[in-house]
Each structure stands twice: as structure tokens, then as C-alpha cells.
Amino acid sequence: MRVFTRTAAAWAIAAGSFLPVAGASGQATYNLAATADFTGPYADVMKDLIGSQRPAIEWWNGEVGQKLGIKLAVKQYDHRYDAAQAASLWPGIKAELNPIIMLGAGGPDVAALQGRLPGDKIPMIMSTAGYGFAWKPDPWIFNPRPTYSHEAAAFFNWFRARRGGSGPLKVAIISSEASPAYIDQQRGIEKYAKDNPDKVEIVESVFTEVQPTDLTTQINRVVRKGAEVISIQTNTAAVVATKRALQALGKNVPILMSSHNGVLDSGRAVGDVKQMEGDFEAYAMAVPTDEKTPARAFFDMLATKHGMKSQWTVTAVQGMGQVLVALRAIEATAKRVGADKITGEAIRETMLSTPIASDQIFGTLPDLKFTKEAPFPVTGLTAGIGTIKDGKYVAAAKDAAVPVLSKW
Questions:
Q1: Which of 39, 93, 257, 315 to pair with 45, CA 20 to 30 A apart?
Q2: Per-residue pLDDT at 25
Q3: Which residues pair with residue 76 across a beta bridge?
């Protein structure tokens, strides 16, 4: 993975080069822009996420785009998971690439660009779950997954049913005020608990620095309050600090993580995935186990034929799903308006009118149907739940129902 410095990151390309709009051999060539975090809190997981974009686009160019008379290129920009940096990069990205789609990398993109994209007429497709602060009608941002709070609530209901009993599940939240996304995750879970007091009780929401090193005092406090699950949807550093605190205290409370800080990534960060025994991750997409699935077969094909260097991880599935949604939207738009007439606005219209079947995106995500109601499908989704059992990564559940949540 290439290392980017803060002084040189502004216009850095993750790998390779991008193509100009004028294509060769009669092809219409279009640019995609992507943000990444190579020098911030997600540098440890970005290699697998971003590493899946270029091979998938290369596959599409050869197998689909060539028949349509289209060639796509992508360029990545390091925004360090910072909203101010994302905002400052955006004018240059537009001027340099004139992209038809933006591939977003997280909450900073949404916070910085959600007010600009409608005027610029460029849709942004995310790899992440959604955010409550972007839960608005007539979207230009598209999340194939519901909000992080939806995904967490799916896990809480599944875990409570497995636990048995009639009382609510007692949950502690580890968060940070360093990012709008982090605050949003905490608020959404608290809103769900308030609306469903028979299902979830929040014993405490702990706010700490974005990458904490010692949480022993805070974890001791929430354990004493009876926490049955500790929810961490921020980053691997918070998971490591929490795991170290639980070990120091001699306590065994399951940690819930999301896709970008899940059990394998956090296990590597803590030193051994076996230390994540009995912990969980939840997200509305495929669980990357060793089973033979369409998603795994597609990944293996990209590794064999198109230079995929990513490992088979949750973040690789996350990146693969994101770019496949973009590719299928471009493909459907080309068939609708013509290969030489593709614009960001036309792609958005396609996404709002044309469902994407799960088999079109190799099972990386469930069936997707976007509407003007929200930036993400609001009903009919299920979540995958991964865990470490007997030292091995397995799927604890593949179809946990995602409940309906009220806005917060």
C-alpha cells in the first residue's frame, strides 16, 4: 500500500492513472472520482476497500463496457477522513475529472458534499452504511446499506432473541465527537432504544478521543452498570482499547463492530484474531466466510485475472459492492440514454427508477431499490453477522432482519 504524506496527499493517485474524457477507438470514456483515507483513522483498512475498485472497473471495461462502447477510469484522493479536507478537494476534483460518479469513503464526504452534489449534478455512491443527518428526500447520495444504527439494531434484536428472556438488552456505546458520523451512530442507537425500551437499554454512551489508547476506567464503569454488549462503530483503535480494557479487568463482554472495524481487522490490530472470540460485526451485506458464494467467486476471478491485491475481508466486500452498484448504474444508464450521453444526472435518474438485483452485484449486497424517500432502501433489508468461533471466522447469521427506525 502506498503511503501518503499530509503535504503530498491532496492530489495523489492511489495507483495507476486516470483517463481523459476523450476516448480511443470510438469509445466514450468517463471518469469516476473516489475519496480514500490513507493517512487518517482508517488507513489500516483502506487497502482492501480501495484495492477492490480498480480491478472491478477493469473487469467491467473488458466484459461489459467494451460491448457498450464505454471505458471507465477512476482516481482516488486522500481526504484523511476529514470533512474540511473533503470540501477543499472537491472543486479541484470536479475541474480535473468532470466525474460522472463520486465514490465516497465515509461521513466526511457526506457532511461536506451533501449540499453541493445537487447543484453539481454528480451522484455519490457510498460503501458505508447511511447517516441520520443525510436522511433526506430526493437524494444525490446513495447508500446501498441503511444507517449504522439500523444495522446495530438488527444485531441487538438478533442477540437478544438468542439470549432469551423478556428484559431489554443492556448496551454500552463507545463513540467520539470527532466525526459527525460517530455522533450520528450513537444518536440513532439511543433513539431506537428510546422508542423500544422493551428491547434495548443504553446503560451509557462513552465519548472519547477518535483513536483512544486506554479505556479501562470507562469500560469498568459500563461493565458495573450491567452492559451485555459494547457497541463500537467508530474504528479499530477504539476496539483495541476496549478489548485491552476488558482483558485487564478480567471481563468477557461481547463487542459489536461494523464493517470498517470488524472482527478480522480489529483482530489483526489487537495482535491475534483469536482474541476476538465471541465478538461480533453486523452490516447489511455479505459475510466474507470461506464458503463458496457468488461474491467469493467474483473476488477470486478478480484476483486471478485482474490483479486484485486485496484480502478477502469485510472491507473488500464493502468496496466491491460499492463499485459494482456504480458499474451497474452506469450500464443501465447507457442502455437507457445511449453510451455517449451518460451524465451524473442521468445516472441518478436510473438509480431512482431501476432496481439492482443481488445477483447483478454477485451477492455482495441484497436486492436494492432506491427511491426519493431516502438515500438508502428503507425496508426489506437484512444484515449479516460475523463472529470468531473456536478461533475461526464464521457467519453467526446471514439474514437478521433490519428493523424500521424512526428518524433522529
A1: 93
A2: 60
A3: 34
Same fold, 28-146+291-377 and 148-283+383-401: yes
Class of the CATH domain delimited by 28-146+291-377: alpha beta
What does the radius of gyration of the chain's CA atoms come to, in whole angstroms?
20
Give the integer Cα–Cα distance in Å for 12 and 76: 7
Strands of the sheet containing 169-176, edge to edge, are 200-208, 169-176, 229-232, 255-257, 280-283, 382-389, 392-401
Is residue 370 within 8 Å of residue 352, measured between CB atoms? yes
Checking DSSP bridges between strand 280-283 and strand 382-389, what pairing results, if any?
Answer: antiparallel
pTM for the full model?
0.86
Domain positions in the chain are 28-146+291-377, 148-283+383-401
Instruction: Identify how many contiguous H helices and E strands the chain contains and give both numbers.
Output: 14, 12
Q: Which fold has domain 148-283+383-401?
A: Rossmann fold (3.40.50)
For 176-226, the pLDDT digits (tens) are 998 888 999 999 999 999 999 999 999 999 999 999 999 999 999 999 999
Contacts of 282 (CB under 8 A, 6+ apart): 151, 152, 154, 155, 256, 257, 258, 383, 384, 385, 386, 400
C-alpha cell at 81: 477522513
